[in-house]
Design goal:
The protein has about 230 residues and is α/β, with parallel strands linked by helices. The protein is about 30% helix and about 20% strand. The chain is built from nine helices and nine strands.
Length: about 230
C-alpha cells in the first residue's frame, strides 16, 4: 500500500469525503486544500440526470460569472473590415479574416475564443475539423456568432463562459482562481449552478442535479450539497 503524501494527509485532515458541504463551506475549503505554487483554477463538476444522447435532453448554455474567470482570455475576431475597429476597441487580441483563416489552416490555434459574424460562417465552417476538437468553433448558441462582435468581445473579456454537458452527463468548467475570495468563488459557482437549473430540459425526469464537486487544478474534489444552492 502506497504511503500518503504530505498534501494528501492535509486534505484528509480538512475534508470529510463522505460529507456534503454547503457551497459556502466548499468555497472556503478549496482554498485550504490547494498547495500549488501557481494561481490554480477553481473548477466545478456537476453530474446531471439527463441522457445527452437524446437531443431533447442536451444541456448547453452561457453564463456571465459575476467576478469573471481570473484568466486572460485571448480572443480572435473573424470579421469584415467594417467591424474591425469596433472589435479592436472592445479588446479583441486578434482581428482580421483571410490571414487568420490561413493561419488556422496551417495549425495555429493559440487562442481561447473565436467570435465571428453570421455572414462569415461560410468561410469559418471548413475550419471545423481543426476548431471543433479544440472547442473553438464559433456557435450562435454560445453567442460567438453574432452581428455585434464588439459586444461579444466585451462579454467574454468580462467573464462570460459557455458550457456543454458531456456524453457522461457531466458539465465541467472553471469558475475562477484559487486567489479569489471564498465569497467570489461562492458567487461564481452559484451563478453557474443556477443557470444549469434554469436550463433543465422538460424531458429530464427524476433528480436533475445529481452531484456537485468543487476542486482546484491539482486538488481532490469537495462534495457540495445541491440543496445549499437551490435554497
Amino acid at each position: 500500500m502506497s504511503k500518503l503524501t504530505k498534501n494528501q494527509k492535509l486534505y484528509n485532515a480538512k475534508v470529510e469525503t463522505s460529507k456534503a458541504y454547503t457551497l459556502e463551506e466548499a468555497a472556503a475549503l478549496v482554498k485550504e486544500i490547494t498547495f500549488t505554487k501557481f494561481d490554480a483554477s477553481t473548477d466545478i463538476d456537476v453530474r446531471l440526470g439527463v441522457d445527452p444522447r437524446k437531443a431533447n435532453q442536451m444541456v448547453r448554455g452561457v453564463v456571465s460569472l459575476p467576478h469573471g474567470t481570473g484568466k486572460q482570455v485571448r480572443v480572435l475576431v473573424l470579421c469584415g473590415p467594417e467591424a474591425e475597429a469596433a472589435a479592436k476597441e472592445a479588446g479583441a487580441d486578434y482581428v482580421g479574416l483571410e490571414e487568420y483563416i490561413d493561419k488556422i489552416k496551417g495549425g495555429w490555434t493559440d487562442i481561447d475564443v473565436i467570435i465571428t459574424q453570421p455572414q462569415i460562417m461560410g468561410k469559418v465552417g471548413p475550419l471545423g475539423r481543426i476548431l471543433g476538437p479544440r472547442g473553438l468553433m464559433p456557435n450562435p448558441k454560445s453567442g460567438t456568432v453574432t452581428p455585434d462582435v464588439a459586444k461579444a468581445v466585451k462579454e467574454v473579456k468580462q467573464g462570460k463562459i459557455d458550457f456543454k454537458v458531456d456524453k457522461g452527463g457531466i458539465v465541467h468548467t472553471s469558475i475562477g482562481k484559487v486567489s479569489f475570495t471564498p465569497e467570489q468563488i461562492r458567487d461564481n459557482a452559484a451563478a453557474f449552478i443556477n443557470t444549469l437549473i434554469k436550463l433543465k430540459p422538460a424531458a429530464a425526469k427524476g433528480t436533475y442535479i445529481k452531484s456537485i464537486y468543487l476542486s482546484s487544478t491539482m486538488s481532490k474534489g469537495i462534495k457540495v450539497d445541491p440543496k445549499s444552492i437551490e435554497a
